[in-house]
Design goal:
This protein has 1002 residues and is mostly beta strands. Helices cover 7% and strands 53% of the residues. It is built from seven helices and 54 strands. Residues 110-206 form the TonB-dependent receptor plug domain.
């Protein structure tokens, strides 16, 4: 056996330390091949009869950097019966044990999900499946897991690939929406918690790799899977006009032809499901007033120490709608000989959502509100009676209509050549695109004194009594009738589309040189990748009417009986007042008999038809971002011994050059010297005030890495990993959509919450873990420690008395219209420097560190029915030195980093006996910080939550299985708050989802 010399180990560790850590991985294509090979080898060992080897097996063995050693070819998922015959273990148990096998042979700190065949993953969604893994937590959107957090870090730090290729997202960020990926079309997944040089950069938290099936690697010659499931939501009867039932359907086929040299795979998955929620949402505390007259109260803001903080208001809403997702996958694979393989694959997913939100939006107008009997807690008003007193205090009857049309497309071609016995070359070309068209429509009503009057006059007699009740529903009372057609009229219609397109083209080449009779290294790997990414955002708007009064210039609509339905609340919300649900189409057709106007990108126009820039944000917030990346890497794979301890792993370095730039419309005040142009909006208005620019930057990063795996016994190993890693800011944060304003008193201010000059998040990370695999490979126990030293974060800062002119802004000397010498001008007003609100890289950074425990075991030694009993459980503890300050509660509070739960627990208990299998899965996370969506997105503290799912299945015969599932078994709500739990945020109930279906495999 080769001896691993201490000097080389010292050199490798020193390299990692001097460069602050850096992990080198095989290429994505090679990683995918490695997993396919592992699956193929595992499948081979499951066959009861000998079978002809895959003609490409030797090729895969030579090309993959993660191979299955002789000691691990006996798979978890294949066990012997009393006569010594191999038995294939399927279902959740088989999937779990194959995942344990893959973790055991991996060359990084990683977690794995695996399925026998396309469509065999047992979970409803990929996000649900991923949350079974240690250190992974889900963020529920609409009651479903959509985004995942890894080791306390949110989606911006999570990098996602499909078949080794970087994914763009429909979210407008870098965070992939995993509900876009049907679990039926994904055959396996992995989360890399440590890095390697061959892995595409981008995952400070980790990299999620999704894989579709490889038809030439499957164990059977042909397979066909089909499933159909009906579903039901038990809260749908609480939401008027919502659907209660839905369905899922999928089928897939995989086949090998031409003496196993040609493989073909195709799959389709359709989802149609209702989406319901009943919710109360308290809004942020954004106003102050001295409500109790206590002069010695010093808890208020600096400019008003006797004041209390007052919320913007609250919402009470029924939410409903339906989601339709159609997913398609296709793979063709050709291996005409032992030295060449060509694989082409395509993945397409369309996700359409139609949703409504109906109920109330209460606005306090807190700074001028007339508040009686205030209830104050921790200097915040959490109750009282608010009366309208010639201000904007009001109750809006809300009938919002939202549609979202998302599409993801991924195409790729991969070719592998074994050029010599030692050298393998891989080439890959890919195209990934995502588009999203979200149309946020609102239809708001107000209460008038009498709808027969002309013009309509707002009912000034408004009284709102409320008392927040922490994380329980509040006490609320009103003095108005919100269902009386003699009083209620439509006051505002608006539609605000968000359209995003994100496209990435990439090409990469990877080489691997196998070493013969080398005492230390098994192979060298190297490669390069070039990608071009373009992101575009388009905003547009149409507004008619106003939300706080009835306009005479844009008259309101008087409602009729055929346009409305009286809606009552039920269940826990039954004491909320009834309201009018409005037929959207009927109302708009009556309001706009010549056709409903469509939104546009426009400067805005006043009543005289002149530009007033009232909606110029629709142009200023639209634009393009480009990101070109060139990367190269080198990695050495280790296969040696140090004394009697076998050591495997790798070390290497990845170098990346990034160019990022964005379009920018700068306000130059019409100066031709500064490039002012005539810019025409979509309505034909021409502005000569702005100049078009393109701004950006170029930078280079070096990412070293090290992975070492010490096999201390046949069943135990220790892993150590060190790396420098990076995550880029969300792609939409690289936009250059700045805006500026000159106040009447001359103060010049500007806002640029995004910036094309933002740098990546850089981190040094270290992992050490101990893994013990139980006898006969029926489980494992793992303990892991990790430490991430993140160098900086992107944060929004306010820079006061900023030198705008000195930093390139176009700043006039006087407020426009007050220039000296103009006979019609007002008295001259000099322009002064004000506040610049912008996004910057905060250099402070901080650490994330934690402990992860996982335990999986099949108790096969138990008698009878209990021999199929198993447990898979994990616990993660994470803490961080990073804290942020939030002012949304009024008083400033320190909050944890978004996505960080100190405790995360995942557990599944399952039983498999003959044809029957049952499983209970529990996901628990402690409190964390995330975003709640109301009028605007607001960051809030979320309470801890425990989500329980149940699944049972029965094999009717060798081909057919009936499945029953319940998601969110205990109807766990989402609850959030601002600062203290007394300042209620979201209380949202989604209901339980029941599934019953049949699957067929041939």
């Amino acid at each position: 056996m080769a001896i691993f010399k201490p000097s080389l180990l010292t050199l490798a560790l020193t390299t990692a330390g001097l460069t602050m850590g850096g992990i080198s991985l095989p290429t994505h294509a090679q990683e995918a091949q490695a997993q396919e090979q592992a699956q193929s080898n595992l499948a081979e060992s499951k066959q009861a009869e000998p079978k002809q080897a895959d003609p490409t097996a030797s090729q895969q063995d030579s090309e993959t950097s993660t191979s299955v050693s002789a000691e691990t070819t006996q798979t978890n998922a294949a066990q012997e019966d009393e006569e010594g015959n191999k038995m294939i273990i399927t279902g959740f148990r088989g999937s779990l044990l194959r995942s344990v096998d893959e973790k055991r042979v991996a060359d990084t700190v990683s977690e794995h999900l695996s399925a026998d065949d396309l469509g065999a993953l047992p979970d409803i969604s990929i996000a649900d499946a991923l949350t079974r893994l240690p250190g992974i937590a889900a963020v529920r959107t609409g009651g479903q897991a959509a985004e995942i957090n890894i080791r306390g870090l949110s989606g911006v730090f999570v990098h996602t690939t499909l078949n080794g290729r970087e994914q763009v997202s429909t979210s407008g960020t870098r965070s992939v929406e995993f509900d876009q990926y049907p679990s039926e079309l994904i055959s396996s997944a992995a989360i890399y918690k440590s890095q390697k040089a061959s892995l595409i950069e981008g995952g400070v938290a980790g990299t999620v790799e999704l894989r579709t099936a490889s038809p030439l690697s499957m164990r059977n010659q042909h397979t066909f899977n089909a499933s159909v499931r009906g579903m039901f939501n038990d809260r749908s009867d609480e939401v008027y006009d919502s659907k209660s039932s839905g369905d899922r359907f999928s089928f897939s086929y995989q086949g090998k032809f031409a003496d196993d040299t040609l493989g073909f795979s195709v799959g389709y998955a359709r989802l149609f499901q209702p989406n319901v929620a009943t919710q109360f949402i308290g809004l942020a505390y954004n106003a102050t007033q001295d409500v109790d007259g206590i002069a010695n109260d010093t808890g208020g803001p600096d400019n008003c120490p006797e004041c209390e903080y007052i919320s913007e208001g609250f919402e009470m809403q029924h939410r409903g709608g339906e989601e339709t997702r159609n997913g398609y996958v296709g793979v063709i694979e050709w291996a005409p000989n032992d030295t060449f393989r060509l694989k082409a694959d395509a993945f397409i997913s369309d996700f359409d959502s139609e949703a409504f939100a109906r109920g109330f939006r209460v606005k306090f107008d807190g700074s001028t509100a007339d508040i009686l009997n205030p209830v104050v807690f921790n200097n915040a008003v959490i109750g009282g009676t608010i009366n309208r007193n010639n201000n904007n205090t009001r109750v809006e009857i809300v009938n919002d209509d939202n549609t979202d049309y998302d599409r993801v497309e991924n195409y790729g071609v991969n070719a592998e050549w074994i050029l010599t016995d030692q050298f393998t070359l891989t080439g890959d070309i890919s195209y990934s695109t995502a588009s999203s068209n979200f149309r946020n429509g609102l239809l708001w009503s107000l209460v008038s004194e009498d709808t027969s009057a002309d013009p309509l006059v707002l009912d000034e007699n408004v009284s709102i009594a409320y008392q927040l009740n922490g994380l329980n529903l509040p006490n609320i009372g009103f003095n108005q009738n919100f269902t009386d057609l003699n009083r209620v009229a439509l006051s505002k219609y608006g539609i605000y589309p968000f359209e995003n397109d994100d496209t990435l083209k990439a090409i990469r080449f990877d080489g691997k040189y196998d070493l013969i009779d080398n005492d230390i290294f098994s192979s060298f790997e190297f490669g390069m990748r070039y990608s071009e990414r373009q992101y575009s955002a388009d905003r547009s708007v149409f507004e008619y009417g106003q939300d706080n009064l009835f306009l005479t210039s844009e008259p309101p609509l008087r409602l009729t009986n055929d346009m409305v339905t009286v809606v009552d609340w039920s269940g826990d919300f039954a004491y909320f007042p009834s309201y009018l649900a409005i037929d959207y189409d009927a109302a708009l057709n009556a309001w706009f008999p010549n056709g409903v106007p469509q939104p546009a990108q426009t400067w805005g126009v006043n009543s005289q038809g002149e530009i007033d820039y009232s909606t110029s944000w629709s142009i200023l917030e639209s634009g393009d971002v480009w990101e070109d990346v060139t990367a190269a890497y080198f990695m050495a794979n280790i296969d040696a011994e140090w004394g009697d301890v076998p050591i495997t792993g790798n070390f290497g370095v990845r170098v990346i050059e990034s160019q990022q730039y964005a379009t920018f419309i700068e306000d130059v005040g019409g100066s031709l010297e500064q490039g002012a142009q005539n810019i025409t909006d979509e309505t034909g208005l021409v502005s000569s005030r702005y100049a078009s620019r393109v701004v950006g930057t170029t930078y280079t990063d070096t990412l070293p890495q090290l992975n070492l795996n010490f096999k201390i016994t046949d069943d135990s190993q220790i892993r150590f990993a060190a790396a420098r890693v990076m995550s880029r800011p969300d792609i939409n944060r690289l936009a250059a959509n700045a805006s500026s304003n000159i106040a009447d008193d001359g103060e010049f201010s500007a806002s640029s919450r995004n910036s094309p000059f933002l740098m990546p998040f850089m981190a040094d990370q270290y992992d050490i873990s101990y893994e013990h695999y139980f006898d006969k490979s029926d489980g494992a126990f793992v303990v892991a420690l990790f430490y991430k030293d993140i160098k900086s974060f992107v944060q929004n800062f306010d820079l006061f008395e900023f030198d705008f002119a000195g930093n390139g802004f176009n700043v006039p000397t006087y407020v426009p219209g007050t220039e000296p010498g103009n006979e019609d001008s007002l008295p001259p007003v000099l322009v002064t420097n004000g506040t610049y609100s912008t996004a910057v890289n905060n250099a402070e950074g901080g650490y994330f560190r934690g402990l992860e425990l996982s335990y999986t075991e099949i108790y096969s030694g138990l008698p009878g029915i209990w021999s199929g009993l198993g447990v898979s459980a994990s616990y993660a503890y994470t803490d961080s030195s990073v804290s942020l300050i939030t002012d949304l509660a009024g008083t400033s509070y320190e909050q944890t980093f978004p996505g960080l739960s100190e405790h995360v627990l995942n557990a599944s208990v399952f039983l498999n006996y003959d044809q029957f299998e049952t499983r209970v899965a529990i996901r628990n996370r402690s409190d964390f910080v995330s975003e709640q969506v109301a009028v605007n997105t607001q960051q809030a503290f979320f309470d801890s939550e425990t989500v329980i799912d149940y699944q049972a299945s029965y094999d009717i015969n060798d081909n057919s299985r009936v499945v029953f599932q319940v998601n969110n078994l205990t109807d766990q709500p989402t609850k959030s708050y601002f600062g203290t739990q007394a300042q209620t945020g979201t209380i949202q109930y989604f209901g339980r989802q029941y599934f019953l279906g049949l699957s067929y495999q041939l």
